[in-house]
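Thread amino acids onto this structure.
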């Protein structure tokens, strides 16, 4: 009677470990991206204007990734693996990674990022200030492939027509994620 229980328990433990590992990797990737873009932002203080906000949801990966794959030899080698992760209807948010990242460490970065916002909250904030210099940073769902590599889309939305974005090819080296290459940068 103990064997059927083990057949259920072992796969469950393996999946739970993979899920937590992915959350840790997502949090580490998020830290790299937030550190890059919030480096020049000021610490949040009451009454101080914040120019950069963070969007709570992860943007899903779509067919736009095909163009990025075609522009990179590294990605072409892993095209099939990356394409399997294109799921436009997938809905996720950054709350687990956000809490993991800021629960005990990275307090200086947290003092610049504040909390994440919904699109509606960002638009209300921008409308209330009546200024066009606020940006909303939208980070996509990381796509993992090969040995310790990831592809992530980062987009900046403004309620005026000056939006921008790019894809980042990241690699995990010595336990740390680093940006190896910026791909398909665009702006309007």
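Threaded sequence (188 positions):
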């Amino acid at each position: 009677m103990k064997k059927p229980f083990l057949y259920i328990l072992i796969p469950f433990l393996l999946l739970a470990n993979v899920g937590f590992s992915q959350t840790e990797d997502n949090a580490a990737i998020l830290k790299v991206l937030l550190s890059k873009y919030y480096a020049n932002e000021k610490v949040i203080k009451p009454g101080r204007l914040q120019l950069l906000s963070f969007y709570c949801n992860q943007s899903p990966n779509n067919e736009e990734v095909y163009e990025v794959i075609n522009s990179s030899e590294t990605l072409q080698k892993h095209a099939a693996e990356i394409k399997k992760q294109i799921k436009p209807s997938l809905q996720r948010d950054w709350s687990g990674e956000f809490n993991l990242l800021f629960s005990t460490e990275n307090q200086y970065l947290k003092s610049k990022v504040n909390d994440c916002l919904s699109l509606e909250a960002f638009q209300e904030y921008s409308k209330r200030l009546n200024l066009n210099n606020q940006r909303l940073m939208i980070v996509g769902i990381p796509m993992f492939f090969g040995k310790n590599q990831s592809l992530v889309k980062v987009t900046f939305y403004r309620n005026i027509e000056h939006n921008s974005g790019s894809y980042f090819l990241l690699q995990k080296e010595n336990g740390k994620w680093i940006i190896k290459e910026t791909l398909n940068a665009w702006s309007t």
